[in-house]
Amino acid sequence: MEIHNNIVLFISELRKHLRALGFSIIGLTILLFFLSGGLVFFFQEHLNETLYFFSVAGPFLSHVKVAFFGAIYLLMPWIMFVLWKSLGRPFKVTGKRLFWFVFATCALFYAGTLFCFTITLPFGVKFLLGFQSAELQPVISISRFVNFVTIFIMAFGLIFELPVFMIFSATVGVPRSVYEKNRRYAILIIAILSALLTPTPDVVNMALMGGPLCILYEAGILVIRLLDLDDASTSKA
Fold first, then answer.
1. Cβ atoms < 10 Å from Cβ of 131
2. Measuring CA to CA, how many Å separate 41 from each of 124, 128, 142, 146, 195?
């Protein structure tokens, strides 16, 4: 019954912000559409790739997609604020705790996207294109390129937030031992997520995502231990 009430409270609080957030995403997407050409060129230059298109609508749809992901990226602090504020009503995440949860998730999200953009993405692209030869030359469509870059970067940003949600779960009563005893299952789930979230299901890209995710999982356990959150949740109970 308590779980049901918490879910109802969460959805009720979330609905208050969804309309304004949705209109903001649409408006910013339209604004960024006029800058999307420069954004595509920026990624193209960073990865040193020549792009082609194979359908009439291909370039237009790719620019819309870049603008949409750009809007999500810029509005991530607001998105995280809405999420934590909605969670705060049933789970008492308010005041300084709300601020630190929002700050930590945003910081880790942008750290993850930066890590992907500067290290993982160039390495992954270089490895995958390393199989070309004189007889086998890559012809990369702008649509596939945009899908690869945007999904890969956003996925990295989201998975980097894992420790924060582990810490949140500890504050609401999930003991550290749950994470410690289920490492093998966590590794399996991480492998599945890496296969689903990476644009290409090859071992290298899965390792580039799965490796940092395993480290973040262990970091979450360590922070829970250092902050004595097990004791805090036990005292509440």
1. 8
2. 19, 21, 11, 11, 28
Cα–Cα distance for residue pair 220/223, rounded to 1 Å: 5
How do residues 150-207 score in pLDDT, each as one tens digit? 988 998 898 899 899 888 888 877 888 888 888 889 889 888 887 777 656 667 777 8
Q: What is the C-alpha separation between 112 and 99, in angstroms, rounded?
A: 20
Question: Which run of H or E residues covers position 43?
Answer: helix 36-47
Nearest C-alpha neighbor of 216 from the set 177, 167, 151:
167
Distance CA 109, CA 47 (A): 22
DSSP-H helix ranges across 48-161: 58-74, 76-91, 95-115, 121-128, 142-159
